[in-house]
Amino acid sequence: MSKISKTILGDLIEFQRGYDLPKSEFQAGEIPVISSNGILGYHNIAKVKAPGITIGRSGTVGLPHYINEDFFPHNTSLFIKDFKGNNPKYIYYLIKTLRLNEYGSGSGVPTMNRNHLHPIKVSAFLDIADQQKIAKVLSDLDAKIELNNKINSELEAMAKTLYDYWFVQFDFPAKLPSTSLRLTSSDIDAVSLSEVEVPYKTSGGKMVYNQELKREIPEGWTTDVLASWIGKDKSGDWGKENLEGNYTEKVHCIRGADLNGLNGKGAVKAPTRYILEKNRHKILDEHDLIVEISGGSPTQSTGRMAYITIETLERFDAPLICSNFCKAVTLEDETYLYNFAFEWDKAYDHGVLFGYEGKTSGIKNLLFESFVSSYNTPKPPREIAQKFYDYMKTIQSKKQKNLKENQQLTSLRDWLLPMLMNGQVRVGEFEEAVSPDSYREVAEGRVEYKKG
């Protein structure tokens, strides 16, 4: 590789302010409108050909976005008008190292002036071949992360479809008496009907009206409040920031802000804390559920939830606890873990938990006991819950392993980014030690490569 050069940002690229487009003037189309935070919506006209880069100009300033399709840059963003012959992906990664958010100005809403960016002094590789090599290494890592995210999205869709099919439409697999089956003579073969599993409701399974739910549920199912599913709870803890006196037990503390990350929707930034040895009973175990009981916003209720699997615990180098703003619960019967989780999420998504909130000093608190003691749900027989648990355990195992790999790949990428950009790690040395197929091994620390 060539030597790194000292230059200014304006010699590599030229920024331009985005275009005015009030939401009232959006026209139906498939062209993404990119604002300071990313995609604002879609329009029918593109202003910039792909590939392109925008950064936040107003509000969230300096955050770069790489766009792979023609787009419309909104006036809250700056876009790169001219790459001046440089590799766009390399420029994207270079910008990520520059902390452009520090160049915002304004006493109210932060804003960014392109004329303040062009004179910034930077160190960069000017040879296009070197730029392409660096961009490929980092892009390959990002591509693997994105692939894992897509796989997880498909796994989540599969799980949701299965849940809806079994527990909303009530077409769980069931062995029904031949007299109940809606079959024609052409459906009947030598197989004993008593051995055939069929979709319960559409195959004529008996439904009975339930007074509490005001609707029909399968015969043999029960209804009860969520509180009846819960065996015990674990209060939160915060401990100390550092090892101190009797605070000797290292843990990672899960806050409300981390719950989405546990579920695969963003990063987990659970702080490392130290708790008293006598509080080890608060440590989270497999099958525990964590519920946010303080927080929320005017448009988001309290009550976000995540559950713990073995693979979840393996994502961390120390045990987990929940913070004082969360509560952990353990079910009486772990077989019903995923049923409980889906029932809870359904109530959350439908805004039910807004009706179970109180306020203390302006902070919204979930009236947990009130909710779980009054919210009725259908409860399937254990053998059906067991089948669903077995399916879900496999899905969640794959999902959490992908999240763990992404966590490791992200750490590797974030470490490599400045090292490749400043020349401390050379692409050739990295490629000698690592093939694209072995990024998992690098992320897990099983492959070493030289620096310098």
TrEMBL record:
The keyword DNA-binding applies. One of its GO terms (molecular function) is DNA binding. Residues 9-157 form the Type I restriction modification DNA specificity domain. GO terms for biological process: DNA restriction-modification system. InterPro entries: Restrct_endonuc_typeI_TRD (IPR000055), Restrct_endonuc_typeI_TRD_sf (IPR044946), Type-I_RS_S_subunit (IPR052021). Keywords: DNA-binding, Restriction system. It comes from the Bacteria. Pfam families: Methylase_S. Belongs to the type-I restriction system S methylase family. This is Type I restriction enzyme, S subunit. It comes from Flavobacterium segetis.
